[in-house]
Amino acid sequence: MKTSKLVEKIPPSGIRVFFDLVLGMKDIISLGIGEPDFVTPWPVREAAIFSIEEGYTSYTSNKGMVELRTDISRHLKNRYHLKYDPENEILITVGVSEAFDLAVRSIINPGDKILVPEPYYVSYGPLVTLAGGIPVFIKQSPENGFKLTPEDILKYCDSKTKAIILNYPNNPTGVSYTKQELRAISKIVSKKDLIMISDEIYGDLTYDFDHTPFPTLPGMKERTIYLNGFSKSYAMTGWRIGYACGPKDVIAMMTKIHQYTILCAPIMSQMAAGEALKNGERSIFDMKREYKRRREYVVTGLNEIGLTCHKPEGAFYAFPSIKSSRFSSMEFAKKLLEKERVALVPGTAFGPSCEGYVRISYASSINNIKEALIRIKRFLCSQSS
Ligand SMILES: Cc1ncc(COP(=O)(O)O)c(C=O)c1O
Q: Which pTM value belongs to this model?
């Protein structure tokens, strides 16, 4: 069949390419997948079961159930003093994945540029390209702790630059930003008249300081498309539920695409998400405490075996340097898998400048992490002897 040249050019996700190798292998310790090892909290599952028993099996409003939009609005107001009108400033989507795609497609005209800080989440570049835009990758140096600076933005901006994507806490580095750092970035966003697409899916998993949503910064609410969801903090990846908040004109554009492509997010998932917002706080707290404990363990362990690793401020990823091993990140990941049956993700899946790094997910039990560290150490020793 004659397929789209544009789609042909898009490379497959580096994470998938690597995990195709893992498929079918037995007894693997996988620290590769970016998904909670917890099951969705029981009251949330129960709410969905109940909704099915009660016969909630239909479409909802394209924008999502008004009850859920109201719950999200209340949640953001209570937690961050962030006010969004449930009527026309919130859209319920099929995960942050869909919300991101809609956000990009709603703002791009052919040839517009979008700044994508690198390391990046794997979907960003391809989705910008598919929308007819040009992703401009801003390489962030490890010396700078993989943090985006106002100077970086200035350096890469030109007259075609329309927007910037920021993801914090970050996948894959775990880096997050303090209010002061975000304020400095916001000044350049204003100065250069940019739209901010802020992917804050890991916002609840911030360990060392309070998370600051980008739209809470002065003058930023009208410039920001704020994306969040339930996959990570509530362990709800399989429910496929997320949301976007923003100025009503852009939410109307996003809703237009969503109504033709998706119609609405599944009603059972919307019911479950409402329950998560009302009664899920305790579960988030418990999971976060456990991730924090694992973070200490992973970071200390990696540094002890000679893989330099900064301390991630959020999410559940560590991003150590493997430069001391003399392998490329793909070789390192493949050999470690072959010899010691530990799966992690080569840094290059998150951009070419991430050569020399690997991503380790600590959304796995402490026992798995302990055993993986022993195996990585043994692997490193066997290579140097
Ligand atoms: C930064 C980031 N954004 C978005 C997503 C997709 O999330 P969802 O399950 O809500 O589609 C992920 C999933 O790994 C992610 O890491």
A: 0.97
